[in-house]
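Hi U.,

Before I forget, here's the chain from the pilot set. I'm dumping it here mostly so it's searchable later in email.
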Amino acid sequence: MAGMEWVAVVTLLVLAEYLYFAMQAGMSRGRYEVPAPATTGNETFERVFRVQANMLEQLIAFLPSLWLFAYYVHPGVAALLGLVFGVGRFLYGRGYVESPEKRGPGFLTSFAATLVLLLGGLCGAVIRAL
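Structure:
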């Protein structure tokens, strides 16, 4: 199916973003002297760690929704929504580390993209099944 390559590219970009967040959490562990396996002890580390953990949590709904939307609805639109998700996660991470109150716009952006992908994929699959 034409356009699925862009969905693959966006998937890999989002996974690279997750790896970036994971590296930031690891480096913050050393910078703020929070020895493993502790996940508390420094407020800035805790925020960086939560950005990484929350990204992982969001990927569980995002990735299958992205691919199912691409398959049943439109790969180009799926890729675009995937980019919106990635930008939202970046804004979420930057805002959360700066101040937890600033995470809202990034959360809403990425959540909205995932919701559209999920509902669109579901509707597309049901329509095709009928």
